[in-house]
Every structure is written in C-alpha cells, then in structure tokens.
Amino acid sequence: MVKDILISYASSWQKIHWRSIETAYNNSPFFLYYRDQFEPFYKKRINHLLEYNCELFKVLLEILGLEKKIGFTVHYSKDPEGLEDKRSLVNQKTKDSNISYPEYQQTFHPKFGFIPNLSIIDLIFNLGPEATDYIQGLAVLPSH
After folding, report:
1. Cβ atoms of 24 and 107 closer than 8 Å
2. What is the spatial distance between Cα 144 and Cα 136, in angstroms, rounded to a whole number?
3. Structural domain boundaries enclosing 40
4. What is the rounded CA–CA span in Å between residue 6 and residue 14?
5. Could you tell me which residues come within 8 angstroms of residue 39 by beta carbon, excluding any fewer than 6 positions away?
C-alpha cells in the first residue's frame, strides 16, 4: 500500500537535493525568508514517503496561508461522490494545459525565459507572500 512505502537513505539524496535548491534559489527574493521552513526536510529522516509528503504539504499550506483539511481515502474511486474532481485540469504527461500561467520574475528568467508551472518552491521563493494571490488568480481556460 502507498502508506507503507519507505524512504531509502542509502544515498545522500537529501544533501544533493538541498544543494540543488540552494544553488537554484539562493539569489531569489524570498529564499532566505523561507529556507528555514524547507531545510529540515533535507536534514531529518522520516521513514515513510507518505508522512514526508504530508509534513511538507502542511508546511506549504502554512506558508501560503491556506487552511485545507487533509483526508485520506481507504480505496480508489474513479468518480468520487460529493467531491469536486479537478484532476483533469492539468495533464502532467503532456505540455497541454487549460490553465493560464501569468509570467512572474523567475531566478533564471534572463537565461531561460519564463517557465510556467515550474514548482511551488519556485513560486514561493520568487513571489513570497504574493504566491497565494498568484495561485488564486490562475484562470482555467475553456477546453478545446
């Protein structure tokens, strides 16, 4: 089951990931402000992947000032009753998206241009407290 997936610490993936994040975002406007909330995830050991993801998700919600109830299902449901299913809004397997991502200044913008939907940490480290407004302002375009 998903809840039983363990994290391997046989390699130094945490150190590698954190160095990559520091290298990429050290010069971003809000990295120093938020780094202390992210760094522990690359230093402490958490045994289960689900627990790691949930703890990180809670930190992201806190940073964004969003109050969301996190719940878990006992079984998979293709069409969950009583819930708004937004899984089809973005297809991560293709570049097609029906969400319009307004440009903001990214750390490597001069070299690579704007990269939409890059990551939540990109948004947080570059926009800081404005990240929540950015997310809430995303416009879903009509399907074609």
Report:
1. yes
2. 23
3. 2-72+93-140
4. 15
5. 18
